[in-house]
Cobalamin biosynthesis protein
Amino acid sequence: MKLYYLVFSARGLALAQTLAAALGGEAARCGGSVTLHGWTKAHFRTGAGLVYVGACGIAVRAVGPLLRSKETDPAVVAVDEQGTWAVPLLSGHLGGANALARAIGRVCGAQPVLTTATDAGGLFPIDDWARRQGCAVADVHKIRDVSAALLAGRTLRLYSDWPIEGTPPAGVALAGTKADCDAALTLTDPGPALWLAPRVLALGVGCRRGTPAAALEEALAALLEREELCVKSIGKVCTIDRKGDEPGLLAFCAAHGWPLETYTPARLQAAQGDFASSAFVAQTVGVDNVCERAAVLGTEGGALAVRKQAGAGVTLALAARAFRPDWKWTE
């Protein structure tokens, strides 16, 4: 998480610099060309953590006009200048504000003031756990129902495609099947259960020169629907180096916030695995398959999850990196 600190006094600046030295990030002092609302607007949409060293009210007034949804809003924490309290104001679980407040507390001794219901009740915060495990919540609106059930004293039945290291926390039991669970840690659609989608997939792409972003979007949407996968499980796009400057591919990646990784033909050819082979592709670009090999390289040798899908000048494949979840959600 990229952190930004805004302060309003010399004392606040000293605290922010201490926090930045330990946690990373950039500190700025309000005044002159640095205005409260200008600074907030400049950093709010970056997916970053915003720390206001000052009164909670200042932070609330600054971020209020920019609020969109708990799924996209960044972590916002207010810390008093004395370093006594660290108050998560926004995106406590999904954005990581609660975890950030705890981290600030470990650096300067501030007491985290956690007001989210599950934390206040000492219960399992499933959305905080999902973030800590590197997962996205596919259907954010269902979090409320799962948390409400925990608060009402019900046992949460959680299914996972992977073994989860450690012992389930109080109030949580492992379910044997997706059909018998309240939440599922899985790559494929679990139906009515809350879907926790691990961000473990790399999308391998091959395309003709000049392919527009819309064609890539259409091909991906068809693949995800057919395979019952969540777009939030994709963490990067991978392809051959000669496609690294394709405007359509770059726009496609930018729209989703995905980094684009490229590989030389020699590197692609050296990838280990059982791949589809095309003599035409080999003659054209110097390697017999781009999308499958690129996807595997993007996961550092992970397994193919979806083999080559081709149509309308686009080829796609997905590979999954190794994933080892545990029951931790705090440091």
Remarks:
- The chain has twelve helices and 16 strands.
- The mean pLDDT is 94.
- The CA atoms of residues 224 and 231 lie 7 Å apart.
- The longest strand covers residues 303-311.
